[in-house]
């Protein structure tokens, strides 16, 4: 039985995908998580022009297609729907979301699982901003300031009781994820923020796990300018409706 | 589910505005009335100070993790070697 499904959305991650899969396999084996029998990685690729899907097929030959599922979509349909499509393929009782760009290190997956087991929380969310052992690498002063202000605004306007709202490294009980994501309307950075805030307002319990976040080394950022305005608009909408 | 924060905020703001306007009507000219008239300004300043303090605290306690980047860099090398053994060549020239 599949216990944990890792949904890995990819868009032009041909360099990162083999590395992240290698790290996931290694870390799960190190932690002795069911000889990684109980884990399935679902790669949701939006027909990346760089051939990420071919790289994924190569990885399936190496690691076996029982553990790595490739879900291909006809074009760049966005992250929010990538998680939703991934969920249809993923069979796990728990759903883990992470980025494929090596910003999220798989060594934290066993920690998430351990925290979930001891706290019985509905959601375990990675936090870069609280607790020992967490942090960020590779942001300049402007990026740090932006994130601090954005986080402060969200804390004041939503008080979600979670320290890292825009992070996308999280473990969910499947039913909780299905229920909450079906109500989420936001996109971009606000998507993760709405997901976690909605979940807390619906009474689901959230535990936090300090994580390190290393800004991407390979490949390029997909989320570009105009982001700040989108964030503020999204925040106002949640302020008014959530 | 609780009321959205924004709606609570607007409701409270309206009540406060009404109270403030009433005060302006009933208070006689003088020092007290002047203080009452500028009191919203104080509230705004107080909130601004609080906000700056929070953001400042966030900046001060912001932690960096160069070790994590080092560890990752090392592991990327290991991964490349190991994957090459498994028959997969990576070409990470551009960084
Ligand atoms: N399937 C799919 N995956 C996506 C899409 N956009 C982004 N991704 C993937 O989602 C993850 C997070 O996206 P990133 O581009 O890293 O977003 P970010 O971390 O906010 O920005 P960076 O600063 O570039 O790291 C990565 O694994 C991307 O490959 C999309 O439209 N479709
Ligand atoms: Mg990223």
Automatic annotation (TrEMBL), chain A:
Q: Which reaction does it catalyse?
A: a di-trans,poly-cis-dolichyl phosphate + GDP-alpha-D-mannose = a di-trans,poly-cis-dolichyl beta-D-mannosyl phosphate + GDP
Task: Choose one Gene Ontology CC annotation of this protein and give it.
Answer: endoplasmic reticulum membrane
Q: What class of enzyme is it?
A: transferase
- Name the UniProt key words of this record, in alphabetical order: Endoplasmic reticulum, Glycosyltransferase, Magnesium, Manganese, Metal-binding, Transferase
* Listed pathway(s): Protein modification; protein glycosylation
A Pfam family (short name) is: Glycos_transf_2
The record's subcellular location field reads: Endoplasmic reticulum
Q: Name one GO molecular function term.
A: metal ion binding
Q: Where does it primarily localize? A: endoplasmic reticulum
Q: Which residues form the Glycosyltransferase 2-like domain?
A: 5-180
UniProt cofactor(s): Mn(2+); Ca(2+); Mg(2+)
- GO BP terms in the entry: alcohol metabolic process; dolichol-linked oligosaccharide biosynthetic process; GPI anchor biosynthetic process; isoprenoid metabolic process; protein O-linked glycosylation via mannose
Q: Which family does it belong to?
A: Belongs to the glycosyltransferase 2 family.
State how it assembles.
Component of the dolichol-phosphate mannose (DPM) synthase complex.
So what does this one do?
Transfers mannose from GDP-mannose to dolichol monophosphate to form dolichol phosphate mannose (Dol-P-Man) which is the mannosyl donor in pathways leading to N-glycosylation, glycosyl phosphatidylinositol membrane anchoring, and O-mannosylation of proteins.
Q: What is this protein called?
A: Dolichol-phosphate mannosyltransferase subunit 1
- The species is Vitrella brassicaformis (strain CCMP3155)
TrEMBL record, chain B:
User: Which species is this record about?
Assistant: Vitrella brassicaformis (strain CCMP3155)
Q: Which UniProt keywords apply?
A: Endoplasmic reticulum, Membrane, Transmembrane, Transmembrane helix
Q: Name one GO cellular component term.
A: endoplasmic reticulum membrane
Q: In which pathway does it act?
A: Protein modification; protein glycosylation
Give the protein's function: Stabilizer subunit of the dolichol-phosphate mannose (DPM) synthase complex; tethers catalytic subunit to the ER.
Its family remark reads: Belongs to the DPM3 family.
Protein origin, superkingdom: Eukaryota
Which Pfam families did the record assign? DPM3
List the GO biological process terms. Answer: GPI anchor biosynthetic process
Broad class of where this protein is predominantly found: endoplasmic reticulum
Where are the bilayer-spanning segments?
Answer: 42-62
Q: What is this protein called?
A: Dolichol-phosphate mannosyltransferase subunit 3
Subunit composition and interactions: Component of the dolichol-phosphate mannose (DPM) synthase complex.
């Amino acid at each position: 039985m599949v216990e944990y499904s890792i949904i890995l959305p990819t868009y032009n991650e041909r360099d990162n995908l083999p590395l992240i899969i290698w790290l996931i396999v290694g870390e799960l084996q190190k932690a002795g998580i069911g000889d990684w029998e109980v884990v399935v990685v679902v790669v949701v690729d939006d027909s990346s022009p760089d051939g990420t899907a071919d790289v994924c097929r190569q990885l399936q030959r190496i690691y076996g297609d029982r553990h790595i599922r490739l879900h291909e979509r006809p074009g760049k349909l966005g992250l929010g729907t990538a998680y939703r499509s991934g969920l249809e393929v993923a069979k796990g009782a728990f759903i883990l979301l992470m980025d494929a760009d090596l910003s999220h290190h798989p060594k934290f997956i066993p920690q998430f699982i351990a925290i979930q087991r001891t706290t019985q929380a509905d959601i375990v969310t990675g936090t870069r901003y609280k607790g020992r052992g967490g942090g960020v690498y590779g942001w300049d002063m402007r990026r740090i300031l932006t994130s601090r202000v954005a986080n402060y605004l969200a804390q004041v306007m939503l008080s979600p009781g979670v320290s890292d709202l825009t992070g996308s490294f999280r473990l969910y009980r499947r039913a909780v994820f299905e229920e909450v994501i079906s109500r989420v309307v936001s996109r971009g950075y606000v998507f993760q923020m709405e997901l976690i805030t909605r979940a807390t307002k619906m009474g689901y319990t959230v535990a936090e796990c300090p994580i390190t976040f290393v800004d991407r080394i390979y490949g390029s950022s997909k989320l570009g300018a105009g982001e700040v305005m989108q964030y503020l608009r999204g925040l106002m909408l949640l302020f008014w409706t959530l | 589910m609780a009321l959205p924060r924004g709606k609570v905020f607007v409701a409270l703001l309206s009540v406060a505005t009404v109270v403030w306007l009433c005060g302006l009507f009933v208070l006689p000219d003088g020092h007290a009335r002047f203080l009452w008239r500028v009191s919203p300004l104080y509230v705004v300043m107080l909130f601004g100070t609080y906000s700056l303090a929070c953001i400042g605290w966030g900046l001060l306690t912001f932690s960096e993790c160069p070790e994590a980047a080092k560890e990752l860099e090392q592991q990327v090398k290991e991964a490349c070697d190991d994957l090459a053994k498994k028959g997969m060549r990576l070409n990470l020239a551009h960084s």
